Structures are given as C-alpha cells and as structure tokens.
C-alpha cells in the first residue's frame, strides 16, 4: 500500500520485555510431583565453546536417571525461580516490562508425559505466576515446548521420533489452553524448532553414534511430528480462544556468502533455505519444493499420515517469532570451523565476538527482519536476543555491564530502522532478563541478565538478586518506548 509517510519510531503498544525458559530458571526439579525432563539429563559442558546438549546416549541417560543430584545437571536447579517468582516478577515490573516470555514445563504438568490426570500442583504454580504478572499488567507470552519434554517419552517412543508423542503433546496443550486461555493471549509452540536438526535437546530422540544419514532421517521425521503437533495445537487454541494468537519460533541465522563468487552466493542461499524451511512449513502450511531435492539427495523419507498435509495447510501460525544472536558466513564446499557461532558456519572477519565466540552483528538483525517480513508478510516478534558475558560483581556490590548496554543498544537501533523500512514488529523480549543456566553449556558463568544472581557454576551462592547497570538503562528504554537509548 502506497503511503506518503512511514513509521519512524516504535509503535504505540510495542511489547518490551524479557524471555526465559523453565528448564534454565525454575529449579525445583524434584518437587511437587514434577517429572524429569530431557533438559535435566544433559550434563554440563567441559568446554564453554562446545555445546553439550546433544551428547546423550542410552548409557548417559541411564547414568542421569540414576543420579539424584544436580551436581552434573545444573538445569535441575536453575536459579530457583520456583520460589523467587514474586521477587523476580516485581523486578521485571520495576523495569517496566510490557511482556514476559516464559515456558510451561510439560514435565511439571504431565510428569510421565501421558499421565491419566495432570499434576494439579504444577498447574497451580503457573496459576500463581500468571496472577503475579496480571498484578503488574505484564502480558504473558507462553512457550509450550522449550527443550523440556518428559524424559519418559524418550524411553517409551524415542521422543519425537515416535508418532505417539503427537497425541501426548496435544493432550498437554489442550490442558493448558483450557486452564489459562482467559489469562494468556500470546503463545508459541516449539522453541527454535530448527535446532531439532542438531539432535536430542530439541527432539528428545537419541541418535548419537548413528550415521549422518540415519541421524537426518530420525531428526527430520521427529520434526515432521512437531509440525503436525504444532498445527493441531494452533487449531485447538483457535477453537478454545478465537482471539488468542499463536506463533512459531525459529533460531534465525542469516547467512552471508564468503565472496561474490556465484557458487558462494548459492551456498549461502541454500543455508538460508534450510534455516527458513521451518517457518515455511509453519507459516505457509506446506513443505516447500526446494526441500524435495534435499530429502532425495540425503536419502530421507518423511513418513506422513493421510491427513498430515491437510492439517498443516489448514492451521498456519498467526505470527512468526525468532531468536537472533549472530549471522553466519559460508562458501562453496564450506568446512565448519566448529568454534563458536553455534558451531556452524565460517568466521566473519568484519565482526567482533563474545567470550563464547558468537559473532556480534546488529545490522544483520535489520537484514533478517526485512527478509522475513518480505517472505511471510506476517507480524514478527523478536523473542530472544542478548549477550552472554563473564560479568563481575565488583567490590562496590555492583555489576558495571556497559558492554551489554552497548550490545543491546546497537540491536534496538537496527530494530527501529527495520520498522522504518515497513516491518511489522510486535515486540522484543531480550534473553534473559535475569541470570540463568546456559542452554548450550549448562554453566552459570555465561550471564545475560539485567539482574545478577549470586550463584556460581557449582550451584553455590545466596541466590540474591542484584540490579546491574543495564537494569536502569533498559528501564529508560522501555519508559521512552525506545527513544532513549
């Protein structure tokens, strides 16, 4: 539509806030009837530049199930949000949060995945969290599956590799939709669904030690089951609450060609297609043609039930959300260096990087916002973006994290430019507003928050919450609707 003016600031009602996940923040892994989740059987990494979330075998699973401590499994303890949620939400409210993204732990509601009845104590916990958010007029954005499925389903069906998991998940989604539909207007299905191509942490399927082709077969089949479950959940929600909105969630990694050489440009296009395939299915409702060649050349056969494709087509998501931490570089016959950048892609010599080797590219956020808006024409929501850093609590009792302020400022500036470009952006929930256990390495030292938590990598500390310098800065950003940076 032609207009003589354009948006030059964040829209009124823009949703500023922060995002967390149950398995990284809640703790209370063995209280009030909760079952063990897949996140809680992944051991912490030995090397902070090498992620550990896929290193699960039948043997390591057995060891984890027998271990009744959190020594090797920090996600079991989180930062005890389970007992500190009132204090933490009050701090979010003090910053002026308009929205708070969190996940409901499936294993807290259905500890065994397929229990005859949901665990009432688990439901009550989220009743209380939602009531506390309502107290401060903070909008909840709820993720239904954030790397925390009941581990029993891995034992029974090899996680999402088994089609039986669809019904178990949709019983869970129907339960929470019915319980919370009058309190929650925004939902997400699977967190960073594309990372299911990396294995266990997202699919709950054990495939370590198999050939690459066998792994790809299991992973893409598991992802197909998630696509179907997501579409069914979308249908459930629209029937239960026609006014609510549900979105997909992608780990977005824009890929640049290493050179203008046509073969490198094509290689980058292929990488982007493999990344956007997931939102193509969830937003457009069908498998894109370009994946047919990929599946055929890699010996992958997607087994579908008769009505799967109709279910996908009839139930696309309402909006698209994504995480953004970095961009990647590739070239023809690329060999990944395996260090940092989620251990994929090559290095960009023009970018700085974090202590974990994640390259920092604010302009890339504007590029990807424009690309995704042009591709889908559905509202977009940035639901993760942040800087993991080695914060230091100084002798004066403060954390002076100017580096985090600089990082976030640069990305928010590019968000504003994308809005000027015409992108429909709903909101921004930075990751994570309070220090929590790292997803990729399960360490505490990788801190993202505006709020420092007194806990070390061994779980020692008072759990005291301390405001960092960035706390006051973000408060001003929200109060000015992004004008004061």
TrEMBL record:
Record flagged with keyword Ion transport: no
Organism annotation: Leuconostoc kimchii (strain IMSNU 11154 / KCTC 2386 / IH25)
Organism superkingdom: Bacteria
Coiled coil residues, start to end: none
InterPro entries in the cross-refs: GH, GH_1_N_CS, Glyco_hydro_1, Glyco_hydro_1_AS
UniProt entry keywords in alphabetical sequence: Glycosidase, Hydrolase
Gene Ontology MF terms: beta-glucosidase activity
Similarity-based family: Belongs to the glycosyl hydrolase 1 family.
Pfam families assigned to the protein according to its UniProt record, in alphabetical order: Glyco_hydro_1
Protein name (database record): 6-phospho-beta-glucosidase
